[in-house]
Amino acid sequence: MAKTPIDKLLQPVHKFIHQEFTGGIVLFASVLIAILWANSPYAGSYHAVWDANLNISLAGTGLDAPLHIWINDGLMALFFFVIGLELKREFMAGELSSVKKATLPMVAALGGMIVPALIYAAFNVGHASASGWGIPMATDIAFALALLSLAGKHIPSSIKVFLSALAVADDLGAVMVIAFFYTVQISFLPLLLALALLLVLGLGNYLGVRSVIFYLVIGIIVWACFLMSGVHATIAGVLVALTIPARPKIDEEEYVTSLRENATTFEGAIRQDGALITFEQYHILERVKQLSLDAETPLQKIENALHPWVAFIIMPLFALANAGVHLDAGFFNAMGTTVSLGVVCGLVVGKGVGVFGFTWMMVRFRLAGLPAGAQWAHIFGVSLLAGVGFTMSLFITELAFSNAELIAQSKYGILVASLISGILGLFVLKTFVRTQTSKGW
């Protein structure tokens, strides 16, 4: 097919967007911009922008909150919605779709949550900062996969699958932690309304409703109900995602057969002179379009449509609004606090020990096997990369603390820990993996 000038112009952009590591690159750039902005002569404008109030109202009822709250409670609900779609897809037909497939990454993720939380708790027991134990528990999948892609082509694809499944299971754990431990108070009336609407969405799925608008409109109302209930609104994103239909209306065999029949009919239709097609051919094309819609699942359609928005707008905006910490002489003093030490040791040591240790135990006791083609150095490198907990760690920080000083200490720890974990993980994967493979370990 001949490419138009606009196709040629946009091709590099499309290629960049669809690279696996580009989301991590854009996220890293956003973090860097936020830090530079917050430490520049224009630091006042940084805080002024994100603290500016935004009021959205309809029929006299509305929400009035600073811009960074809209991002954290609103746009991040969309981020969690995509996580929910990924979780459902993985549980239905992905790396978590069977007990055998899910066992190793889910147990590894469990170790990567328990050990960091215990390390943080050990540093902060008896302190006001003890509530931050959930901060070092989560892995930033965008950063981790971006760094893994930089490790080289000698990394087997099974390791990428293992890290992806690990991060997805990790996200599930983070969602549960937020729901059960970082919800302060509950207003039951809006929560009951939200649950009733979730049942409506589930019923719609059961009855075969496949309209995206149906799930979108009711999903927004569910989000608003959660926001008013006191349960963190991002949980609504995950729950709504679980109601999205994930099965096609027609199977592959029926689709291929119908497609061939329509293609034959289209080819045999009487053609007319010129570039235009006949009405008969037009109706055949419409049938083919409907067939294609019936053959795809709303879940994958929505996930594919939202992924670029989440990767290139929502997560970078979140990073810009939350990563702007002021680095001064107090930074080094803060790194000696129990919060920063707990976060750094939790992410760097806790993630490495937890993920690697639980994986080793599963393999040692023959409850699971290593991913195909993987060596122990691969697992150790990935365990270190799991310590890059940027996005979710920042998110939980905002839920765990209301004290600005504790928030700053946690953010310092997250930045340092993510940097250390990323460097160590890359070093192991680029250095020791080849050595181990050549020795046949």
Automatic annotation (TrEMBL):
UniProt superkingdom: Bacteria
Reaction(s) this enzyme catalyzes, per UniProt: Na(+)(in) + 2 H(+)(out) = Na(+)(out) + 2 H(+)(in)
Bilayer disposition of the protein: Multi-pass membrane protein
GO cellular component, one term: plasma membrane
Major localization class: membrane
Presence of keyword Transmembrane: yes
One Pfam short name: Na_H_antiport_1
Compartment(s) of residence: Cell inner membrane; Cell membrane
Keyword annotations: Antiport, Cell membrane, Ion transport, Membrane, Sodium, Sodium transport, Transmembrane, Transmembrane helix, Transport
Parts of the chain that traverse the membrane: 21-38, 67-85, 106-125, 131-150, 162-182, 188-207, 214-244, 306-327, 339-363, 375-400, 412-433
Listed GO MF terms: sodium:proton antiporter activity
One GO term (biological process): regulation of pH
Homology family: Belongs to the NhaA Na(+)/H(+) (TC 2.A.33) antiporter family.
Summary of the function given for this chain in its UniProt record: Na(+)/H(+) antiporter that extrudes sodium in exchange for external protons.
HAMAP family: NhaA
Protein name: Na(+)/H(+) antiporter NhaA
Biological source species: Dawidia cretensis
Gene symbol of the encoding locus: nhaA
